Amino acid sequence: MTDNLNELTATDESRIIEMAWEDRTPFEAIEHLYGMSEKRVIQLMRTKLKNSSFKLWRKRVSGRTTKHLQLRDPSIIRSHCSTQYKQR
Q: Taking a C-beta distance cutoff of 8 angstroms, is the pair 27, 61 a contact?
């Protein structure tokens, strides 16, 4: 989609922030869907979150193997919990 933060819709911003918060969604998935690099996701999070929330998020995702495909266990083949998107 775009690597420019100004061209994102509010819906796209919201979804990217949600995906960035999710433990199992790698940055590569965000880049694949929205064309936004990890660096740009960090910039988006820095601008849209409160400073304390941003610091908490950065601490949480730094070094987390599930946020980077190259560091992930190859046996993990999905980006969400099997019960996350249950249909009723």
A: no
pTM, to two decimals: 0.71
CA distance 86 to 65: 25
Write the secondary structure of the chain as one string of H (helix), E (strand) and C (coil). CCCCHHHCCHHHHHHHHHHHHCCCCCHHHHHHHHCCCHHHHHHHHHHHCCHHHHHHHHHHHCCCHHHCHHHCCCCCCCCCCCCCCCCC
Q: Write the pLDDT tens digit of every residue in 23-49.
A: 888 888 899 999 999 999 999 999 999
Place of tokens 């190859």: 74
Residue spans of the domains in the chain: they are 5-71
